[in-house]
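User: What would this chain look like folded?
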Amino acid sequence: MERWHRRCARAGRWLDPIQPHTYLSDMAILPIIETPDPRLKQISVPVERVDDDLRAFIADMFETMYDAPGIGLAAIQVGVAKRVLVIDLQEKDEETGAVVREPHVFINPEILEESDDLTVYNEGCLSVPDQYADVVRPSVVKAKWLDEKGDEHIETLDGLMAICLQHEMDHLEGVLFIDHLSKLKRDMVLKKLAKARKMVA
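Assistant: Here's the prediction, encoded as structure tokens.
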């Protein structure tokens, strides 16, 4: 199976980069918070109402994600502790080579079932910039969520979408991908991150 970071690298994006929404002409790029910001450890609360304010925020999330660039972003990564996440794998068209945007909004997502079959992907995160590590997750999940219109969806997802959804849903529980690693590997990632920050300071 082709490794996740190779697919993302070819597309120039990482986990955590819609066509612009017609209902909002001006979108904002929001600041992405990074570890060890304590807000990333918060448990996000359910969305009670899907309205225009939420849709405007979702548009800002997409704008922020594309600018980063990444392929998924959870609301808490921009400091909002709500159970909202956006994903766009932005895979390339095989014939033209052009990147195809297929934005997905997940509001109050839940995992209903997960496969016993596991997959290893080399994951990265906009809140742990430029650091990557292998994470083991179920290959297939059955999930339920609301879209930006408030409509409910129940679907079985596999491949990169299943992995990306699980990664972003971890954020809603205050979990980063590095929390799936052993203490030794997690410490190594954090040391590399600290070193990289010193080099650009």
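Residues 88 and 102 are 5 Å apart (CA to CA). If you want, I can go into more detail on any region.
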